[in-house]
Amino acid sequence: MPAAMIADTTNNPFIKSLASSNRTTRDRALESLRTYLHRSTPFSELELLKLWKGLFFCMWMSDKPLNQQRLARGLAALVDALQGRENVLGWLRAFWRTMAREWGGIDALRMDKFLYLGFEWVRGAGGEEWKDEGVMEEYLEVLEEVPLNVGDGKIPNGLRYHVVDIYVDELDKVDVGRNAPLDTILTPLRTLGNESLTKAVRKRVQEALKDERLDDWANAAGSDAESKDAEDEGVPDGAAATKGADSEDDKEFGGFED
């Protein structure tokens, strides 16, 4: 990590508390941050980028697997504290811009915890709460703008690959009922796969879009249509043949093994 970043963050007692090895201290700091984020007035882009600069440092300093996972989940959950669409989207955009800026400086020993943090943030794109709040499509635009950006040379391909690789995995976990608007959610991937100037990126996207689990959404839609037809024809409930979509168990992340 650049020395300037360390100097800028270690002088902040609040950030030091978030980076503490003591779980109680970290939890209290997260709650304080949650309260701060709950304000109704808009945050500026600079304010949010400064916050994420410090939070990135907190993740950098977290040194035990369970602590890393708890912190990653805690940071991802902070979005729920924000009020107003402008603040929510600004917060999400600031996270991805921070990741894009710092990605090249993450060493191999620390990469796993940032990969896990990425898991938590991609997962948000498929959650039902995003659909209800009308934020999902705008979050997908943020993904297109930053980690899945087609032509910005400042976005590391390593970050692109990571988001592409986990996209279907995280959608599979959050949308067990196969109710999400699949075409909409896959738009950023398809755009990247069609328009990227890098052959390796296009190939990576094509592989992701061939995932057999994506067929589950089509099967679920077909089952719904069959059930509706059966009801219209007066067939008793349960008589229509349906095929359920299997989902894999949510496995514990295993990237932190020594």
From TrEMBL:
InterPro entries: RRP1. Its main location: nucleus. Keywords: Nucleus, rRNA processing. It comes from the Eukaryota. It holds the Pfam family Nop52. Residues 213-258 are annotated as: Disordered. Residues 247-258 have a biased composition (Acidic residues). Transmembrane segments: none annotated. GO terms for biological process: rRNA processing. It is found in: Nucleus. GO terms for cellular component: nucleus; preribosome, small subunit precursor. Belongs to the RRP1 family. This is Uncharacterized protein. It comes from Saxophila tyrrhenica. The lineage of its organism: Eukaryota, Fungi, Dikarya, Ascomycota, Pezizomycotina.
